[in-house]
Amino acid sequence: MTDCVQVLTTAASEEEAERIAAALLERRLAACAQVSGPIVSRYRWQGGLEREREWQCLVKTTREAFDAVAAAIHELHSYEEPAIVATPIVAGSPGYLAWVAENVG
Fold first, then answer.
1. Whole-angstrom Cα distance, residue 73 to residue 65?
2. Dihedral sign for Cα atoms in the order 16, 21, 22, 27
3. CA nearest 64: which of 34, 22, 100, 38?
4. How many structural domains compose the chain?
């Protein structure tokens, strides 16, 4: 297990996902953020079934920075309750993981 995590969020537009990614990098909360999409998300919300086009933002960061990353996403996001999910990186190339750790904070 490493101290690095990937944080996934989705956004209503490419512009919003890019803005979140840029802010996380500018604040040194992430070493890398990738925006991809559009994707189609189907989900339950407030008693109904929804279907929306969204863009994913995948953020490479550290466990230590997660709370600040989550707070920044909440601050910058248009959704009432954005998806913010951290997945531990259990293994990776030592050089890449060192690069992530060195570029956060």
1. 12
2. positive
3. 100
4. 1
Q: Which of 26, 95, 89 is nearest to 61 (CA)?
A: 89
The 3-class SS string of 15-72 reads HHHHHHHHHHHHCCCCCEEEEEEEEEEEEEECCEEEEEEEEEEEEEEECCCHHHHHHH
Question: Which range marks the domain in which residue 91 is found?
Answer: 4-102
What local confidence, expressed as pLDDT, does residue 86 receive?
98
Residues 6+ apart with CB under 8 A from 18: 35
Distance CA 105, CA 66 (A): 11
- Total residue length of the chain: 105
105 contacts 22 by C-beta, under 8 angstroms: no
Interval 52-98: pLDDT, tens: 999 999 999 999 999 999 999 999 999 999 999 999 999 999 999 99
CATH at 23: 3.30.70.120
Cα separation, 89 vs 61, in Å, equals: 10
